[in-house]
Amino acid sequence: MADNMHLHVDENNIAHLKMNDVENKNIFSNDFIRGFLETMDELEANYKPHCLILSGLDSVFCAGAEKDTLIDLSNGKIDVKDLLMSERLVNTEYPVIAAMEGHAMGGGLVLALCSDIVIAARESRYGAVFMNMGFTPGMGTTTLLQGLMGEFIANEMMFTGKRFKGSELAQKGTNINYIVPKKDVLAKAFDIALQISEKNVKSVNLLKYTLSAKKKKLLVDARLQEDMMHKLSFAFPETKERINSFYAE
Amino acid sequence: MTKEKIIEVIAENIKENLDDLENETIDPMKSMKDYGANSLDMIEVVSCSMRELNIKVPRAELADIENIDQLADKFLEHAEA
């Protein structure tokens, strides 16, 4: 197993994948993406999971793209592997529960959008920060964010790039299943996972197949639009400057 | 713009962005971290306050600031510029 990922499958066939790249704080480095995909392969080759809990670090669930990738994109090198992760989650045979104890930004938040059930922490922040760096949202954000946040909050998140606090989202009434204190996020995820694991796994798989059809389509739609918008917005001369000043934070 | 006004704005934004501080008096000699702020909370408090006070401080100048009082001084410097 990649050392930036921890996988554990318990006696109830609940799989828990913890994205654990402490050094780089769970950004989409090539190693991170490879580690994630390999761990998913390993899970499916060796186990029959009834459901998957996807979690991250205490401070950061997933921080999205790394600066070098974005600079490459602004230099016209288009080779984005991030989408492989969204597609992988949407195409699983079992439900995925995103247990976000820490912050989730940009593509990191998309991992939750591609999940079936989402748990967030009151103390952490969640943002679709793409526009802060001068380019349009990607990885499926433009078609998937509405489902989790509601259309108008999704609009605000995308246009302003604001990092919303979990407690603030809780007041707004989004579609996030639970927004609880950080220390309770994993326990909540395991409680839901246990309820799912008690069901007939064959029927769970069927249900997942049906429910994911819509998301698969939304992801294909997003790809068409977002790729075109990226070709345009990454080529704006201001974008590189904004990326650099964003990462100076 | 007075320093008192700046501190008032920062304190309001700290209360708005962090839990359970409604009845707390914010001590400017403390850091936002002392009130439970994580790094993204601090960025949000700073950007909200700058918008409210209509000032812009480059990120690089904020890196070494240790407490709310120093942040207010930095804001004041840019308000007067």
List keywords for this structure.
heterodimer; A: 249 residues; alpha/beta; 2-enoyl-CoA Hydratase, Chain A, domain 1; six-stranded mixed sheet; four-stranded mixed sheet; 50% helix; 18% strand; globular; B: 81 residues; mainly alpha; Non-ribosomal Peptide Synthetase Peptidyl Carrier Protein, Chain A; 3 helices; 53% helix
Give structural notes.
Chain B: It holds the Pfam family PP-binding. Chain B: Residues 4-79 form the Carrier domain. Chain B: It comes from Spirochaeta isovalerica. Chain B: This is Acyl carrier protein/polyketide biosynthesis acyl carrier protein. The complex is a heterodimer of chains A (249) and B (81). Chain A has 249 residues and is of the alpha/beta class. Chain A has a single domain, classed as 2-enoyl-CoA Hydratase, Chain A, domain 1. Chain A is built from ten helices and twelve strands. Chain A has helices at 30-46, 67-74, 82-90, 107-113, 141-149, 151-160, 166-172, 185-197, 201-233, 237-247, and strands at 5-9, 14-19, 27-28, 51-55, 60-62, 64-65, 96-100, 103-105, 117-121, 125-127, 164-165, 178-180. Chain A has a six-stranded mixed β-sheet, with helices on both faces. In chain A, helix 2 (67-74) runs antiparallel to helix 10 and helix 3 packs parallel to helix 4 (107-113). The radius of gyration of chain A is 17 Å and the shape is globular. The two termini of chain A are 33 Å apart. The relative contact order of chain A is 0.15. Chain B is an all-alpha fold. Chain B has a single domain (3-80), classed as Orthogonal Bundle (Non-ribosomal Peptide Synthetase Peptidyl Carrier Protein, Chain A), CATH 1.10.1200. Chain B has three helices and no strands. Chain B has helices spanning 3-17, 39-53, 68-80. The longest helix of chain B has 15 residues, at 3-17. The model of chain B has no long low-confidence stretch (mean pLDDT 92).
